[in-house]
Amino acid sequence: MSIPSSIEAGTALETRTYPVTRADLVRYAGASGDFNPIHWSDRVAGAVGLPGVIAHGMLTQALAARAVAEWTADWADGAPAQVVELGAKFTNPVVVPDDDTGIDLVVAGTVKAVDGDLVTLALEVTAGGTKVLGNPRAVVRA
């Protein structure tokens, strides 16, 4: 895969939106083995000072990574680039309401640098208008 000439520092990438519901939390818990009750019990979440049931931090990070894979697949006829680095800090919880709608996790991205076959991306990940990941970033090899 080669980097398209349209991908350069400052390029804004198409915002991706991923709905997260309580059912998604159950599925993720089963896949990850993380059955901490803060991810499914309003009572427990409230008892530990959380505003409600929260999404798993790694689910949030995985959805940010999904956006990176989708963006880079768009560059190369469906084959995503190799993710060399992916990082962020968990700064705010993603509170998931107990309804069928859930909350939208919104991932925006900007190309920060292109160096040979490496592309550095800066991400912004929000839920309900609040940034939920601090300094989210990715480096991909095209």
Structure, explained:
This protein has 3 helices and 6 strands. The protein is an alpha+beta fold and 142 residues long. The protein has one domain: Roll (Thiol Ester Dehydrase, Chain A), CATH 3.10.129. Strands 1, 2, 3, 4, 5 and 6 form a 6-stranded antiparallel β-sheet that branches. Strand 3 and strand 4 form a beta hairpin. The termini are close together. Pfam families: MaoC_dehydratas (PF01575).
Give the tags.
alpha+beta; six-stranded antiparallel sheet; Thiol Ester Dehydrase, Chain A; 6 strands; single chain; 142 residues; 25% helix; 3 helices
Topology:
Blueprint: E1 12-20, H1 22-32, H2 42-47, H3 57-75, E2 82-90, E3 103-115, E4 118-127, E5 130-131, E6 133-141
Antiparallel strand pairs: 1-3, 2-6, 3-4, 4-5, 4-6
Domain MaoC-like: 9-99
GO cellular component, one term: fatty acid synthase complex
GO molecular function, one term: fatty acid synthase activity
Brief characterization of the structure:
The protein has 142 residues and is an alpha+beta fold.
Give the count of structural domains. 1
* Rg (CA only): 16 Å
* % residues in beta strands: 35-45%
Spatial shape:
elongated
What is the strand tally?
6
CATH topology grouping: Thiol Ester Dehydrase, Chain A
Q: What do we call the CATH homologous superfamily?
A: Hotdog Thioesterase
Q: Biggest sheet: strands, sense, closure? A: 6 strands, antiparallel
- Termini Cα gap: 5 Å
Helix content: 25-40%
Assign the CATH architecture. Roll
CATH class placement: Alpha Beta
Average pLDDT works out at 96
Count of separate DSSP helical elements: 3
Spans with pLDDT under 50 lasting ≥5 residues? none
